[in-house]
Amino acid sequence: MTETSPVARRRTFAIISHPDAGKTTLTEKLLMFGGAIQMAGEVRAKRSGTQTRSDWMAIERQRGISVVTSVMTFEYADRVFNLLDTPGHEDFSEDTYRTLSAVDSAIMVIDAAKGIEARTKKLFEVCRLRDIPIITFINKMDRETRDPFELLDEIEQTLALDTAPVTWPVGSGRSFAGTIDLRHKLLRRIDVEEEPTPVSGPDDPLIDTLLPAHEIDAWREEAGLALEACKPFDLDAFREGHLTPVFFGSALRNFGVRDLIDAIAEMAPAPRDQEADQRTVAASEPRMTGFVFKIQANMDPNHRDRIAFIRVCSGKLARGMKAKLVRTGKPITVSAPQFFFARERGIVDEAFAGDVVGLPNHGTLRIGDTLTEGEDIVFRGVPSFAPEILRRIKLNDAMKAKKLREALQQMAEEGVVQLFLPHDGSGAIVGVVGALQLDVLKDRLQAEYGLPIDYEQTRFSICRWIEAKDKVEHERFLNAHGSSIANDLDGDPVFLAANAFSLKYEQDRWKDITFTDVKDYQ
Ligand code: GDP
After folding, report:
1. Which atom of ligand 1 is nearest to 109's Cα?
2. Quick check: CB of 173 below 6 Å from ligand 1?
3. Are strands 350-352 and 316-318 parallel, antiparallel or unpaired?
4. What digits encode the pLDDT tens for the residues 325-357?
5. Where does GTP bind (predicted)?
6. What ipTM score was computed for the predicted complex, to two decimals?
């Protein structure tokens, strides 16, 4: 793979942060660096596509959600960046987790006054499951902040992640004057647009002109310490997910963003090789492979078509090609793959490993599906997490039970909720990771299927997939717990427990049964 090959040029990443830390602001600034999207020879934006585009926009407005921003592709410094958006709700949905299964690196945005917040930590843990390399951006340096050392220490302690400050702030809040690049000894000033100035180090006299006199000594001491005592940046440790390079800046003031995007271009990995169940697929392989990590429904209730977002893992996805959908063994034609430019959509002629394209379909594609040029492999790693909230569906019109069953099946295939059908024949149970998904399900069942539903508490609060090496033991467990067993969408059994105590009780009694809270899609 040469530096200039399409794969080597790609950077596919996400931004993880707590709400309000500045993700949206940073995204806007990153896209500005992208400028006009021109991918000569690779993509032909559909010039006559204004019709489609405006339809699309209308749909977005109607639902008040952004489809286009699911993926934002832009070019900068001879790199193609695919920025995958993690949903912005305060609440968790599985979409967030799945999106992170499709990236090669992530930017962690931290509010300099707040440090690591709950959601950042949770998202980080998901990244850690796959050892995704993380670049840290400490934002809002133009406001009152916590001490930089304290922030680094918090990252190390809370996330068990080494830190290597690549830039160091010169002042903060009102006296925030810029940053100094500790490796290259370059000073970037917030009041000057130009290229950074070479300096001798923290003791450079230029800095005396930037900070209030009473802050200079303390700052020098601190910056000197950062230079001496902090870990230097180590590419291998970063790529393995053990160390994060740290940048300081202000997204709002568009400061520090260039250093950040340069870091993604230089440090962040090109598309990674992906584990399939039979073998590892190298990103540089010539034959196309990819997996579906997200499904977005068409908002028009009369058209049940959906967009499946595919991460290309190897080879070239070309318009019009035939691909094999491994789950069914059937071929599908990739007729109108969509590419998502910063603010537009276009039809793709070609996409490469690392790219994300949208495939319109009528329900053929499911989350976790693998597409290949014929080989029978299945990518693992689009996980399903045990839901944290379980509810039984109460249908307010008993005549529509069959329709409800179909609708729930579709919603589950789309990944809106997880569906569990109890072995004892009682009503369907839905599970979600974040409570917001329950509202989404209820709204959509009403709007798209005319099904008015309510939720009922169940006696269960915990759900675990159950596995056992010994088939007989597995069977014995299922039979002994009939009323607490349900099947998921794939027909795999789960054990439903009333609380942590009863789960523990069963775990202690059934040593040969494994209870898992994460399941890979088949
Ligand atoms: P998100 O919820 O993470 O997407 O955060 P936003 O980008 O919407 O930012 C939340 C708020 O913080 C907004 O009012 C932004 O204007 C503000 N903000 C973002 N970045 C900065 C920054 O660098 N400095 C300051 N002072 N405010 C910022």
Report:
1. 3
2. no
3. antiparallel
4. 999 999 999 887 877 654 556 667 789 999 998
5. 17-24, 85-89, 139-142
6. 0.99
Question: DSSP label at 120?
Answer: H
| Distance between Cα 29 and ligand 1 center (Å) | 12
Round to whole Å and give the CA distance between 522 and 275.
14
Which strands make up the sheet holding 322-325, listed edge to edge? 330-333, 322-325, 370-372, 289-297, 306-314, 356-361, 338-340, 345-347
Known binding residue 1? Answer is no
| DSSP symbol at 458 | -
pLDDT computed for residue 2 by the predictor: 58
pLDDT range class, residue 301, cuts 50, 70, 90: low
Percent of the chain topping pLDDT 70: 88
Whether 415 shows a pLDDT value over 90: the answer reads no
Q: What 3-state class would DSSP assign to 113?
A: coil
The length of the chain in residues reads 522
Q: Is the CB of 23 under 6 A from ligand 1?
A: yes
Given this model, what pLDDT does residue 341 score? 57
Mean pLDDT of 487-502: 94
Calculate how far, in angstroms, residue 114's C-alpha sits from the geometric centre of ligand 1: 13
Closest-CA residue to 356 (of 49, 102, 100, 105): 102
Report d(CA 290, CA 268) in Å as an integer.
Answer: 21
Domains annotated for the chain, with CATH where assigned, are 15-67+104-166+233-267 (3.40.50.300), 274-372 (3.40.50.300), 383-520 (3.30.70.3280)
